[in-house]
Design a protein that fits this description.
The protein contains six helices and two strands, in the order H-H-H-H-H-H-E-E. The protein has 168 residues and is mainly alpha-helical. Helix 2 (31-55) packs antiparallel against helix 3. The model is unreliable at 140-168 (pLDDT under 50).
């Protein structure tokens, strides 16, 4: 080797892979849920690379632990945030009618911002809002779908926005 050649040019490191990875069944029925799964998989990949970097003396133990802990904290915070929201069984139409279901949801979960109720503040991944066409409690044969309302570009709503039956 020449004296000007870098040591990184002389050493080749392979992937840091688990020979028996844990396999867990997942049931995901929403686009934001899939995004969370992708984020978890990316964190797993990053964690393996950090462990390899520590093992090969590229980073010290305190850096390894700090980065692993910060990433794990961010993921736990994300999943904890999602668990705070519960299905209320109400619709935007219930809130417009100020019926008993809407009043019960308000008492249990608190007020919703007007932009959420009007469908103006929604996740980029929210489905179209289904509106009932009859004024009675019996739904029509098929809901009438409205085109998507303008959305904010933050990627998600305040967690309480969304489609029919969103938590209130």
């Amino acid at each position: 080797s020449s004296p000007t050649q870098r040591s990184s040019d002389l050493v080749s490191l392979g992937e840091n892979m688990n020979l028996q990875p844990v396999k867990l069944p997942l049931f995901v029925n929403a686009q934001l849920g899939f995004m969370a799964v992708y984020l978890l998989a990316d964190y797993d990949d990053l964690a393996r690379k950090l462990i390899l970097a520590h093992h090969t003396a590229l980073i010290d133990r305190s850096t390894l632990e700090r980065w692993l802990n910060e990433g794990a904290h961010a993921l736990r915070s994300l999943f904890s945030l999602a668990q705070q929201y519960r299905y209320s069984g109400t619709t935007r139409d219930d809130f417009a009618a100020k019926n008993a279901a809407a009043r019960a949801a308000l008492e249990k979960f608190g007020e919703l911002p007007q932009q959420v109720l009007e469908g103006m503040h929604r996740s980029r991944f929210a489905p179209p809002i289904a509106r009932r066409t009859s004024k009675h409690d019996t739904p029509p044969a098929a809901p009438v779908l409205e085109p998507d309302a303008p959305v904010h570009t933050d990627g998600a709503s305040d967690g309480r926005a969304g489609d029919e039956g969103a938590a209130a």
